[in-house]
Amino acid sequence: MSWIDALTFDRPRLRPPAALEAIHEVEQQLGCRFPKDFVEFLTVHDGGDVCAKKYAIYSVGENHYPQNTLLAANRDLPPEYPLVNAGFGPNEQFGFRKVDLPAASCAVYRIFHETWELKHLAPSFRELLTALARCESI
Known about the structure:
The protein is α+β, with helices and mostly antiparallel strands. The chain has a single domain (11-133), classed as 3-Layer(aba) Sandwich (SMI1/KNR4-like). Helices cover 25% and strands 22% of the residues. The chain has four helices and six strands, in the order H-H-E-E-H-E-E-E-E-H. It has helices spanning 20-30, 36-44, 70-74, 125-133; strands at residues 48-50, 55-57, 83-89, 92-97, 108-112, 117-122. It has a six-stranded antiparallel sheet with strand order 1-2-3-4-5-6. The chain starts with 19 loop residues before the first helix and ends in a 5-residue tail after the last helix.
């Protein structure tokens, strides 16, 4: 059993797995390498809604909401934008600082779009998911 399977999510709100090749294609298009724990999640669930639909993880593949893919969420951002967006919650997106990538694991930050101020959410994507599985506010 993987660490992802041990988390208690509303599974119907999560997408089927993404192929590793598709993940690498998105990484190439975005010009970055995702943290290992994020890639692991995508190979089990290619994004979806978590914590009573309060938060969403962007998918590699197409889904019901075209803007909720990793490519759409990171397209057309200025080069100085500090994050690779991985998902969103109430009012703000969250993701990994570009300067921290590539890394086996890296912290997750929320960005405030008006100021681009970053707020540390979790030391890793795995720890963020663990909090979201318990529906804790982040």
